[in-house]
Amino acid sequence: MPTTVFVVGSLNADQLLEVPAFPAAGETVLASDVLITAGGKGGNQAVAASRAGAAVTMIGALGDDAHGRLVRRALTESGVDTGWVVTADGTHTGTAVVAVEAGGENRIIVASGANARLTRQDVESGLAGAAPGDLVLLQLETPVEVVAHAARFAKERGATVVLNAAPAPADTGCLTTDIDLLVVNEVEMRAVAGLVGADEGRESRESGEGGEGGDGRDVAGTVLTTSQALECVVVCTTGADGAYVNVGDRVIHIPAVQVTAVDTTAAGDTYTGYLAAALARGESDLPAALATASAAAAVTVTRRGAMASIPYAAEIGEVRAIPGTNSTTSDPGTGTGTADITELTTKG
Asked: Hey, which bits of 76-196 come out as E strands?
């Protein structure tokens, strides 16, 4: 039976502004161009999973406005099932203002709009067909209590639950034992680790105690302690430095594919969506899945926009890293070695 990636998350219209540099407090900066496109973490990840080859169902909310129609059309054109995307009355479609400077880095401000209207009933209706083998992908741009409910509802149906804890959580409401895989960047990981008490010893590593290791060893150590605290697999992305994932009591480093970035807006969402697609089709080699996700994100950052920048699987063949040749295993206490192959196990 074919598996499905169910994405429960945000849908936005992104207003992309190209600026020479980010403004300081009180400063006005003139943008050289503006682009309005479909986005939102949930929508971006759904499109990425679909373009990676997965069957994808989106569960979210839009306003009854032109931006909502723009986003729904973009999802449909990318092969995403929008039958469970509701139209919320009396509010606008979520909106993100994205400033992108010359080097490709961005600053984002989001007005939630209809995303804040997503309900538990919406989630239950959309996930009613979830079954063992399916994957449910969550983020934190919709109400936290709805995210936690989605994780529990999905777990009761035997689905694998992946949480991209972005934006960084302010409390532990979403950090439940229903999570099988947690995907975060460094900022989000520090927030999660602090909330679950998994950041002990970070200060000593940062101060250099315990020998060499640097930032990579600090990330690896926090990945491991966070994984132990939440009893799930943790993937931490670190931009151009690649990603770290725990394999039991060790941590593997997956190098990033090096490219010249133009716009990093949808890089993390592309990474997460491609990873979800790989897991949904039964990929048992997690480092290989992460290498593919990294290659897809590398293509994304060479293009402008959010959904529009996400590549199809056929476009990433030339940049994909070869798994097993450049992936090393990092243990915070013992150093590095050869990469292992590990399989994500769904909690019962």
From this structure: 81-88, 94-100, 106-111, 135-138, 160-164, 181-185
Cα–Cα distances in Å, from 341 out to 123, 225, 231, 286, 309?
A: 34, 20, 19, 7, 30
Task: Give me the half-sphere count of Cα atoms (radius 13 Å) on the Cβ side of residue 82.
Answer: 21
166 in Cβ contact with 236 (< 8 Å)? no
Number of other residues whose CB lies within 10 A of the CB of residue 229? 17
Is 81 assigned a catalytic role? no
pLDDT digits (tens, 9 = 90+) for 223-265: 999 999 999 999 999 988 899 999 888 999 999 888 888 888 8
Give the active site residue among 269, 285, 331, 340: 269
pTM for the full model?
0.87
Apex 197 CA angle, 194 and 203, nearest 5: 65
32 burial via Cβ count (<10 Å: 0-12, 13-18, 19+)? exposed
Residue 175 sits at the vertex; the CA angle it makes with 306 and 3, to the nearest 5 degrees, is 60
pLDDT in tens, 31-79: 988 889 999 999 999 999 999 999 999 999 999 999 999 999 999 999 9
Angstrom distances, CA of residue 178 to CA of 108, 129, 148, 235, 274:
29, 18, 8, 16, 21
Q: What is the dihedral of CA 280, 284, 285, 288, to 10 degrees?
A: -20
CB 282, CB 165: distance < 8 Å: no
Q: Residue 201, class by beta-carbon neighbours within 10 Å (0-12 exposed, 13-18 middle, 19+ buried)?
A: middle
**What SS3 class is residue 60?**
strand
Q: What is the pLDDT of residues 175-194, one digit of tens each?
A: 989 999 999 999 999 999 99
pLDDT in the model for residue 154: 98
- Look at phi and psi of residue 19 and say left if phi exceeds 0, alpha if psi is from -120 to 50, else beta: beta
Helices (H), the chain: 41-51, 66-77, 120-127, 144-156, 186-195, 202-206, 214-230, 267-280, 286-300
Question: Position of tokens 């998350």?
Answer: 9
Both tokens of 196, joined, read 């679950």
